């Protein structure tokens, strides 16, 4: 495993982050989830990402149990706040001071830790003044409940405004967690340049395009039984935008590229995301422990310029690049 600095800080994270969005507390049994975490640790992953909204807080509980007994100082534990939790009442969501202050305490309890290394605003909250949100984050940092603050899926303008407030309030905003892969490149035009200017890194999710970039989905053929594309609880709706024959045919053209580079298709996808110098880490998940080793092999891989060109020739024209696609819900309930 290799490690990179997160933003303009002295804080290092593993190039591969283990995330438990679609699996822990919902799709897989807790003992299998624990096996996946153990496999991640054995593979050298030290960075773990979750959120209170995943499986309505159950994912945090599973991760906390799985990491129990590990040396806390050797881990980087991330979680997020924004989405509805608990009974989903009027103040059980968003980035108000009330919800943030209550949510960090719940997350720490479930994760069985005194602090998280990175606490992230899961989306931008248009219904709460940004000053209120950032003041709550500043207080959490001063209380020692979070060491650093990050955001997820914020636009370039939102990052600039949040970063300016964080400096005024005396804490560091060091990361953004966007979707990023060969097919979804919306951060490249505006978010990445702004982030480089501000000293903010990307921790990217879905580097394998919800599994499409694995090459297992073939044009003109039904999705394999048991795959994510057939699982309503596992992201089938999100994957549908890429289940087009032109996209799937383009992805198939990557198979010889991966083979010649000595990589599997998933490894090629993760390695591609890590070629962006503004990307500090790529989040991968697993429903089986053996999946971890394949993803981890992408760490430290340097793709030659000719390989990157062949990837662009195969699917670059199919990629979504519109920066306006970086969005947060207009309302908390949205």
Please describe the topology of this protein.
Elements: E1 3-5, E2 12-14, E3 16-19, H1 30-42, E4 47-49, H2 58-67, E5 76-81, H3 97-111, E6 116-121, H4 130-142, E7 146-151, H5 156-169, E8 173-176, H6 191-198, E9 201-204, H7 236-239, H8 245-252, H9 255-260, H10 265-274, E10 279-284, H11 290-296, H12 305-315
Describe the structure.
The chain has 334 residues and is α/β, with parallel strands linked by helices. It has a single domain (10-325), classed as TIM Barrel (Alpha-Beta Barrel). The chain contains 12 helices and 10 strands. It has helices at residues 30-42, 58-67, 97-111, 130-142, 156-169, 191-198, 236-239, 245-252, 255-260, 265-274, 290-296, 305-315; strands spanning 3-5, 12-14, 16-19, 47-49, 76-81, 116-121, 146-151, 173-176, 201-204, 279-284. The strands form 2 sheets. Strands 3-4-5-6-7-8-9-10 form an 8-stranded parallel beta barrel, surrounded by 6 helices. Helix 4 links the parallel strand 6 and strand 7. The chain is globular, with a radius of gyration of 19 Å.
Please give a quick description of this structure.
The protein is α/β, with parallel strands linked by helices and about 325 residues long.
